[in-house]
Amino acid sequence: MAIRATVRAPHWSFWAFLAVLLGSMSLSGAADPVVGRVNYVEGVVEVRAPKGSWTPAKVGRELKPGDEIRTGTKGKKNRVEIMLADNSVVRLGSRSNLVLDQAVFGGADRKFTAQLQRGQTYALAAKAKSDSSVFEIKTGNAVAGVRGTAFRIDAKTDQSTVVRVYSGAVAVSNAPLFAKPGKATPTSGQAPQIPRQGVKPGGPGRVEVAGPQEVTKKQWEELVAKAMQEIRVAADGTMSEPTAFAAAEDSADEWVAWNQSRDALVPEVQ
User: Domain range spanning residue 108?
Assistant: First the structure.
């Protein structure tokens, strides 16, 4: 007696399940983009991924969006240098915390944002390749946006912020102070422009900017500091006019002198 076996094609639901399974496996295995790498470590420096544990930072470690870097609180020589994917450099001094928020490096487009939660950072930003390029570092009450610039930010213990510019220009705003919880902070201008002298209201160098929908109805201010100028943002958001600082006195600061010595080792950023 002949026996005939019939093999039925799998039901469509099987193929749907298989497609979802393979898709989820692909997504889970997709690697996050690399922001940059740890390029130099001195003293106590630690890194942790989102929801991860703190681990010692080692030269060559890859950094990704959401990673947090902190330096030791004892002594003045706990430092780290981060080389970003576009050859920009970000450094942290002692008693500092930095969170890497967003990093997109592709073609002419660059979008890099980070949060300095406390302490001091120094950045040497590569020149922007397009007007849509963004390079910003935020504190609790200020955001500094740059193009082809060397600058320093100090997030003080009294909740004030000091921004000092060494080359190029930095647009500084107090927008973070007015951002609604859970909403994005307005950018400080994707391509900082030096305002014309006599711009009103507020006098030279000051621009009143109508807040986007992400902020309250209060207006936030934006000032532009040029080379060898500083802007101070008080805890309540009050901003000083750009004023010159003494280069000799600034260079006497050991933290500044160290950054200048490291700058000499970095290939010219383009």
Answer: 36-263
